Structure formats: structure tokens, C-alpha cells
Amino acid sequence: FSDLKRHDMGADLASPADEGSIPARQFLTRPLWGLAETAPFLHDGRAPTLDDAIRLHGGEGAASRDAYLALEEQDRAALRVFLASLTREPKVFVP
Question: Among 9, 33, 68, 84, which is most exposed with the fewest C-beta within 10 angstroms?
Fold first, then answer.
């Protein structure tokens, strides 16, 4: 669930300054695996919820953000449940 490339995420997510040769608006795509254990979200922890994190995406992430916002709330909630299920530890259930 990641391409491990840098992407322009827009002005709203930009760092205060460039980091060396990396522009302030560019971020490395982190894997979604393990997302359930990483709150708060985004590179600087400014998003307390997954919904907040998705809504803050701009730049190359704007189309995905807009597609998320176009969903009915029930479908957005289902997507958030799925994302929150992405853990690093396998879950084994014994009946």
C-alpha cells in the first residue's frame, strides 16, 4: 500500500522549510500497513483522526481526497474502518 516515492502534497501539508534538497511540499509515501498503530497522523502529527489526515491532502493527493469527500458518509466510515484495520501484527482468532 505504498509506492515509496516522494509526492507534492500541497501547501497545507508543507513543512515550514525545505529539508536540504527536498522541497517543503514533498513527502515520502509511507506504507499504510501498520496505520492502526500510528495516530496521530501525518508527518508532524497534526491530524488526530484518519478523516482529518485525508482532508488535509492536497497537491498530488487532491484527487484522492476529493474522491473520499464525494463518498456518502457511510462509505467514508467503511473506508476508515478498513484503514484502521491495517496493523503490523497478524490477528489470530481462535473460536
Answer: 33
